[in-house]
TrEMBL record:
Zinc-finger found in the keyword field: no
Keyword Nucleotide-binding applies: yes
Protein name (database record): ABC transporter ATP-binding protein
PROSITE patterns: ABC_TRANSPORTER_2
Record domain ABC transporter: where: 8-217
Keywords, ordered alphabetically: ATP-binding, Nucleotide-binding
Record-linked Pfam families: ABC_tran
One term of GO molecular function: ATP binding
Native source organism of the sequence: Microbispora siamensis
Database matches in CDD domains: ABC_DR_subfamily_A
Gene3D superfamilies: P-loop containing nucleotide triphosphate hydrolases
Length: 217
């Protein structure tokens, strides 16, 4: 029987900058096979929280435990203009220790990546760069995927494909945590949390269904 033990367990996470506290005791359990959203206003601390969860930023207190592999798609793309698309894929293949680019190819196809593999990121559109950013975070098929505003710059079709992909991952027992300042896609989530005052609170999802699926990205 598959374990429902959390793939991500967050306890009393605290983080302050010089300007004052941003995270004031964040708690979260993310079981396998869930798509979870975190919303919050600009400056609420969403990016800070995701960086702490990804191990990119050390919290002042509290703990973060992962079970399995983590993928992190930061808000700022990780792409480097000295490298082509193909070189990015090869670089991450080596970094992740992957035998092939099979999964990366599937993801490029799923998101209808249209850029040339010989192109450098600066010559790609913002949405196309974001697709590559997402593929790089996902190509090792992580158990937990942490996404910071993942659909910025996506057109409507790509936005819908992104959610199809999230559903495919959930069906295979992967968990996806999506951070956004917008909550209109709540119907696509298993759980929605609001980050406010440095803590997470579970939100009532407005299951208007159709209404929730009509907002533009
Ligand atoms: N490296 C840093 N040094 C100092 N202050 C920071 C740093 N990073 C973020 N902050 C501050 O911490 C607060 C939370 O920032 P954060 O980027 O985590 O919020 P956010 O919810 O992701 O915002 P947005 O929706 O605008 O992306 C803000 O007041 C920001 O100015």
């Amino acid at each position: 029987m598959p374990s429902d033990e959390p793939v991500l367990r967050v306890r009393d996470v605290r983080k302050s900058y010089r300007g004052g506290p941003v995270l004031n005791g964040v708690n979260l359990d993310l079981p396998p096979g869930r798509v979870v959203g975190i919303v919050g206003e600009n400056g609420a601390g969403k990016t800070t929280l995701l960086r702490v969860l990804a191990g990119d930023l050390r919290p002042d207190g509290g703990s973060v435990r992962h079970r399995g592999r983590v993928g992190h798609c930061p808000q700022e793309t990780v792409l480097h203009d000295a490298f082509t698309v193909e070189q990015h894929l090869r670089f991450f293949q080596v970094a992740y220790g992957l035998e092939s680019l099979r999964r990366a190819e599937e993801l490029l196809e799923a998101l209808r990546f249209s850029g040339s593999r010989r192109a450098r990121p600066a010559t790609l559109s913002g949405g196309t760069r974001q697709k590559l950013n997402l593929v790089l975070a996902l190509m090792h098929d992580p158990d937990v995927l942490l996404l910071d505003e993942p659909y910025q710059g996506f057109d409507w079709e790509t936005y819908v494909r992104f959610w199809d992909l999230a559903e495919e991952l959930r069906a295979r027992g992967r968990s996806v945590l999506v951070v956004s300042h917008l909550a209109y896609d709540a119907a696509r989530l298993d759980t929605l949390h609001r980050l406010e005052g440095g803590v997470l609170r579970e939100q009532e999802r407005v299951d208007a269904g159709v209404a929730d699926r009509t907002g533009a990205p």
